[in-house]
Queue: 2 jobs
Job 1
Amino acid sequence: MSMMSRQQTLFSPRRKLRLEPFSIVNTAFLLLLISIIVIPILKVLVDSFDGMASETVFSLFPRRLTLDGYRHVITRSTIIRPFFVSIGMTLAGLLVSMTVTSLYAYALAQPKLPGKKIFIAMAMITMVFQPGLVPLFIVVRNLGIMNTLLPVILIKAIDAYYMFLMMNFFKTIPASITEAAKIDGCTPWQVFWRIILPLSKPGLAAISLFYMVLFWNQWFEYVIYLPKATDLHNFQVFMRSILIESETQGYDGFVVASQALKNAIVVISIIPVMIVYPFVQKHFVKGINLGAIKG
Amino acid sequence: MANAIISSRRLLSTGSPGVLNGKTGKFRRLAKDILEHRLFYFFLLPGAALLITFHFVPMLELRLAFFEYGLGGIGDFVGFEHFRTAFQGLGFPRAFRNTLLLSSINIVVQMTLTIIISLLLNEVVNARFKKLVQTIIYLPHFLSWIVVASLFILMLSRGGIVNAIIKSLGYDPVYFMASQTWWRPIYLLALAWREVGWGTVIFLAALSGIDPEMYESAKLDGANRLQQMLFITLPHLFPTISIVLIMNLAKVFNLFESVMVMYNPMVYEVADVLQTYVFRIGIQQHRFAYATAVGLFRSVIAFVLVIAANRLTRKMREVY
């Protein structure tokens, strides 16, 4: 709460709005900055509707409007399948990681948990020392879960950084609230489910976004751990083979993609992130700041 | 209730004269604490199991770095043989050089841009415009490296808009992604495009902590906005700048995915970094032992850097 009031005073203009030269230059610079970010994305969007084969001109509108790109995405099973893999794996990953991470974080937020230090240290070590690609690969192979979707989710299911952020959210909830709930006869599980989780919504929303983006954007794990199960590869891996490998490595993709299709694929891969982003964006800066300050 | 029992027991145990009694009291209290928290150990279970399986068990596999590895599994102990091979070969020193070079240029470029943008953004009076800029510049951080690489490749490919401009000016098209001259600048540009906006989050948080009265009194003393920025805002950012710098230095050896999606055999000479090298040698060519050794070398340096960075930032915090 005190955080909020501070933000409010921050946003209230501390200087009078005047058209100084400085403000004009500043605004111009920031507009330039925005366009550097927006233009490549906008260009892809425009080109995804553009029926002309070449990319040679930059125009704000498609020269010949076509929906072929999107039609191909929907009608070709080779394209739509990876898309559904991505959706399913993002939801599954989100569910698993949020469950595992929040439980771990909530346990560590208990002030008097015996052996807490061991569990904190375990998470901390993962942040400072990574055993590396090959040892992890050998372990996954020895577990016999190669060419399944398990390693893709399980390896990323608990991120120490997000876990500590979440632990800090939980710690900011006053002990008096949980004590009161206990006196009213809540079991520890009910306290967690009915009181702690609803109270930590902004933090949980922020971390859900991070996990969601992490699982949606994942591709490398598919390439390494599912080399023979290409039918389980997600949209990012598919996009890589169509857009990157064909361009940089002379890769002969299984779909000869038109420019419109290529651009449509990129647009579709961005859409889910764009949909969720505004809802959670308002939470995350506050959430991150809070976590950073308390941590 | 439970607290009352514990405290009464504590009273009893401290009241008892025998050392042994005190000890058993302590154990009893611990046992009771553990019993009371038993549910929370179940909470920890899934997370701990995953951390152990995918982090601590792989650490055991690091022993491979000192052994032969063949079809039959682990073979003879070879000591530091793989490390010697690495240093005497061509691939490893090249990857090491590229890692250092790309990371250090990247840190300088990104830090400078991030600080400038944060300072300018902080001067924006209109809250709605500020919010808009923030919303837009944070966005690329949430796009995958595949998308970022695709955006750049679409623009820079043979049929892309950049080459169209070059051709219209009467020059020959450039194959940017396969050019040893162009690859590094483009790579660094892509890195900056994705991360600079996001980097401002931490600086803007630090800036929001500056007391507005400082500006008021500076204004009374006749300081203009540029002077306020240089003599109030910037000095207040120094602790944050040094901490972010140290944190970035600690991450020098982490370049990986971004390179993976943008490089190709034509530019290995300027683009191959340690992680991509380990990936090719280890996962693609199945030279597990050698790749583990190179990976271990990388992990140890990264570890030392992170620990040193932590020490330094802690010292910094004491100073400021």
Job 2
Amino acid sequence: MNILENLRIALDNLMLNRLRALLTILGIVIGVAAVTSLISLGRGVEDYIASQFEGLGADILTVRARPPTRGFNRSAITPLTTADVAALESDAIAPSLIAVTAEYQVQGTVVYRYDSISSSIRGVSPNYAAVNDWYPLEGGFFTEQDNTAQSQIAFMGKTAIEDLFGDENYDPTGETILINDLPFTVVGIMEEQSSTFGQDPNSAILVPLLTAQSKLGNARVAGSGYSVSTIQAQIAEDGDVDTATDEIETYLLAEHGITNPDLADFSVSNPETISEARTEVFATLTLFLSAIAAISLLVGGIGVMNIMLVSVSERTREIGLRKAVGARSSDILSQFMIEALMLSLLGGAGGILLALGVTTIAGNALLSGVTPSLSADVFLLATGVCTGIGILFGLYPANRAARMQPIQALRFE
Amino acid sequence: MNDLHSPNGVPVIDIHDITKTYEMGKLTLNVLKGISLQIKRGEFVSIMGPSGSGKSTLMNILGALDQPTSGEYNLDGEDIAKLSQVDLARIRNRKIGFVFQSFNLLKRTSAQRQVELPLIYAGARDRSKRARAALEAVGLQDRLDHLPSELSGGQQQRVAIARAIVGDPSIILADEPTGNLDSKSGTEVMQIFQRLNQEQGITTVFVTHDPWIARHTQRVIMIRDGQIVADQQVAEPLVAGESERPSEAEELQGIFEAAYATPNAGAAD
């Protein structure tokens, strides 16, 4: 008795009950398609997230004030200030950092002639352009003098220009716009940047930091100069993320009088860690969804078992006859195991094909920019899982067939 | 004891003091109560007995489908009373050919493939050649690709006979092989058994309750209540097809109080 003969018997029997086999296979097809397309779409989104963070400087740490994630006193936040910026710039406090830049954001109404837009106005330090590697199309960025003089000048991104002037190719240099009723002179256009997570950096309107802090907002903090929204710190070539983060945290915890790091009222993050965290969150989500989809695979497996039990029961006399003419129990066992495996593997193959279709359509039509990654390991996983299902759900019926006594089986009506 | 009956005197089946007991809860059922018999190579034997006599149990044991509770069973020189399931499967495959009352053919399977079945489990290589030879021996050489649904009852039983002989077994066990057939087909099937027995010397054992069938065999063993009550040679075995089966009216002649007369009395049934 060889495998080929068993394959032939299994195939013959599936062909005899085509519709039944097809419906059983369908259960597996749906389960495998659901799991594999979710995994591949999930991976596609992870790749997409990772690609979005590419190009964002991995050597830049962003410091923000935020409520502590633990503890009872969640409202008392000490704001970040220009004094902190100055301190972090000193080598004594943070030797791993080579540049520190600050940003202060206010909401503003921007008016040009009869058009007005609401926009986030970003006051930035003169070294902001260098740290973020983002420069005006022509000429230089703000100078220290612009800052201390609280000059009313602004750089605009392409999107902001389009919003306000109606044409992104319009050159507004030299135009005067009103921001919160104060006149600002547009002095340049920022380079175009690709957007990240739906946030379009080209919609920015940049003004000198001190201008924003004192003229557009009220950022004065007693004894510490002005508050800032975020601090960006560039790590030196010989520094590393962990040391630099540690230096910033140690300084700010001491400055804010917090002993337990878990109660920190600020966060230090870097694009890489954000990317990793988001990817991790999404991977967990993918896993969770796949686990739910796997339930349908389980149901499909039960379908295989059900139909195999019916098949064994229907063919009791056949089993009796086969045993009477010399089939061993192991022959009968392998005959039915192969049939169950054939059902589940055909289902797996169909599921992979369906998943290919689903992910192609979903990738093209629904999630632009996301390329589903249906790789070899997903195929292997699907094949492995289907083999497992075939064995798991085929074993009981096959064993039942194999253990039949030939006399009783032959008498079965 | 039976050397005279046998063409060459070698016992194919040699059982000694076989018993079979079924435990059914607290009830113990002694189905076979010490049966000893020998069947020689080339014999054509029928085992007769009413329902519940134990003849089916005896056949199951002879066919290695079941094992005796005690006693010895030697089949073609091999002691099989205490073999494992795997070895019993091998014995059934190599040494025994079964023919059943209800044919037991596989659904939607061609005649040739039905006949190949024992050879598949034997791992034989020249399967199709041997299957075709066996089908030719039962006169079905032009029905190789027919499905059971395309064959008459007699033809289906002939396929089953071909399946029984294809592995060249030591013995053919037939359980009421004509029980499901009309008398014409039954006669044809009987002719095949007799021809195979005479021409190829195939040892054949029938299990039947039909005296008319038993009269076509060379020796009749009668069982009642788990014991052999008679074991006789048939003086002149009938040749299938040469004589008409007597009608029920003839068989029951003289048992009625009044004279039994029907309009068709004497006509063929």
